[in-house]
Amino acid sequence: MSSDMADGELDPLSVFRLDGRTALVTGASSGLGHRFARVLHAVGANVVVAARRLERLEELAAAHERMLPVRVDLADAEAREGLVAAAEARFGHVDVLVNNAGITDPTPIEDETLDYFRLVMEVNTTAAWHLCKLVGPGMIAAGGGNVVNVASMLGHVGGTPVKQAHYAASKGAVVNLTRELALQWARKGVRVNALCPGWFVSEMTEGMDADEGSQRYVKANTPIPRMGQPEELDGALLLLATGACSFMTGQSVIVDGGWTAR
């Protein structure tokens, strides 16, 4: 037995704590973002929860101390600036940014509209870029921070027969935005990584878990033949949001049951 273990000094779980740190989570009113906010709070973080549905955010914050609900439309640049201002006014600078919010409406490209494509890019990609730009200086001034860009396995592979060119394009952009910002900020103490879920039970995939055709499709193409559950992202989130990733930046952690391993 090594001396540090004998003395009780080895504490590998300590790097997963966020006591006294502040996390900002977008898309926190439901689904994966709702879970992410609760997980970060559970490891000690102050959490700013942001989304359009304020009543859901207020319900979440009422059950958790150190949580600030902020209504925001992420398609609005001024609203994004107001979100970061509110977070900093309440808790000081942001230590952890989780760019989780996203939208999609699966449809063939022939039926997509230019306006909707622009909206998806604004919410899924531009908003992530903008929030990074807004919180980055505070992280750098404080000596470091973590950005977790929630992309998708569809940022790495195509989605057809679930046709959503707008979503795949936006998430592919987020993956490479992650790489670029990681390079720009690596020597400034800020780590930027992407969390890329596969098919998970969430508001965005509502109905898939009960639809026989969807389940046949998922089971036939996923080596672990099922959809993921939100709690199965807890470990990956904490890896990327805490000091556990101190020598890791610019990476995509793909949690997809093996979908992209083929």
Describe the structure.
- This protein has 262 residues and is α/β, with parallel strands linked by helices.
- It has one domain (17-254): 3-Layer(aba) Sandwich (Rossmann fold).
- It is built from eight helices and seven strands; from the N terminus they run H-E-H-E-H-E-H-E-H-E-H-E-H-H-E.
- Strand 1, helix 2 (31-42) and strand 2 (46-51) form a beta-alpha-beta unit.
- The protein is globular.
- The model has no long low-confidence stretch (mean pLDDT 95).
Contiguous runs where pLDDT drops below 50 for at least 5 residues: none
Structural class: alpha/beta
Kindly report the CATH topology: Rossmann fold
Q: Please provide the count of β strands.
A: 7
Let me know the average pLDDT: 95
Distance between the termini: 41 Å
Secondary-structure element sequence?
A: HEHEHEHEHEHEHHE
Largest sheet: 7 strands, parallel
Strand and helix map with partners:
Blueprint: H1 3-6, E1 22-26, H2 31-42, E2 46-51, H3 54-62, E3 67-71, H4 77-91, E4 96-99, H5 114-142, E5 145-150, H6 165-185, E6 190-197, H7 212-221, H8 234-241, E7 252-255
Helix pairs in contact: 2-8, 4-5, 5-6
Task: Write a brief caption for the model.
This protein is of the alpha/beta class and 262 residues long. The protein has helices spanning 3-6, 31-42, 54-62, 77-91, 114-142, 165-185, 212-221, 234-241; strands spanning 22-26, 46-51, 67-71, 96-99, 145-150, 190-197, 252-255. The protein has a seven-stranded parallel sheet, sandwiched between helices.
